[in-house]
Amino acid sequence: GENVEQHPSTLSVQEGDSAVIKCTYSDSASNYFPWYKQELGKGPQLIIDIRSNVGEKKDQRIAVTLNKTAKHFSLHITETQPEDSAVYFCAGSLISGYALNFGKGTSLLVTP
Amino acid sequence: DADVTQTPRNRITKTGKRIMLECSQTKGHDRMYWYRQDPGLGLRLIYYSFDVKDINKGEISDGYSVSRQAQAKFSLSLESAIPNQTALYFCATSDFASGRRETQYFGPGTRLLVL
């Protein structure tokens, strides 16, 4: 089955700096890659996703890049703010499938 | 997501007790899922249901059972709880008929402690 690895497990940045979280996947058939943000005491919330027919997608301060050849994808957050502090999860799956295979999460801390 | 609710939000139980976690959704989605989250392990799929009559085991179904009482309701049961089932449990939904069938929406979670 699909194996998704996520790095780093913890990340601390200063407000205004950029943050990058990287994930690799094992199944070359995977074609859907969402990113979820989980705030304390809440469920994961989808913040951005990308399908394998696209190399990059942006939404305001958040962007995701995908390298199908290398089987890795990354989340980029620019101009970080304290409210970006949370645990971020990447996942991989098939668009036609059902199971999201999650990475182990990255705890991001943005310090003022 | 307020469209997906889970009850209870917190539960403490003892080893050997039967416990049920409930999930309800008002999104009108056909597919529902139960995940378990452990510190440092991410989320793992326990069971999933494509519709009321279609229930399937996920990656870690041993020790759990589920019931899909209606399209909007999906319950997870621990028949005889054990301490290593202490975890955060999430329900999720997706809409197969939509143009974003792969997107899953999560509830707020149930924190379970088995003593």
Q: Secondary-structure map with pairings?
A:
The complex is a heterodimer of chains A (112) and B (115).
Chain A: E1 4-7, E2 10-14, E3 19-25, E4 32-38, E5 45-51, E6 56-59, E7 62-67, E8 72-77, E9 86-92, E10 101-102, E11 106-111
Parallel strand pairs in A: 2-11
Antiparallel strand pairs in A: 1-3, 3-8, 4-5, 4-9, 6-7, 7-8, 9-10, 9-11
Chain B: E1 4-7, E2 10-13, E3 19-25, E4 31-38, E5 42-51, E6 54-57, E7 65-70, E8 73-78, E9 87-94, E10 105-106, E11 110-114
Parallel strand pairs in B: 2-11
Antiparallel strand pairs in B: 1-3, 3-8, 4-5, 4-9, 5-6, 7-8, 9-10, 9-11
Tell me what you see in this structure.
The complex is a heterodimer of chains A (112) and B (115). With 112 residues, chain A is mainly β. Chain A contains no helices and 11 strands. In chain A, the strands form 2 sheets. In chain A, strands 2, 4, 5, 9, 10 and 11 form a 6-stranded mixed sheet that branches. A 5-stranded antiparallel sheet of chain A has the order 1-3-8-7-6, with no helix packed on it. Chain A is globular. Chain A starts with a strand and ends with a strand. In chain B, β5 and β6 form a beta hairpin. In chain B, strands 2, 4, 5, 6, 9, 10 and 11 form a 7-stranded mixed sheet that branches. A 4-stranded antiparallel sheet of chain B has the order 1-3-8-7, with no helix packed on it. Chain B is built from no helices and 11 strands.
The total of helices of chain B stands at 0
Number of helices of chain A: 0
- Tell the overall outline of chain B: globular
**What portion of residues of chain B belong to β-strands?**
over 45%
Number of strands of chain A: 11
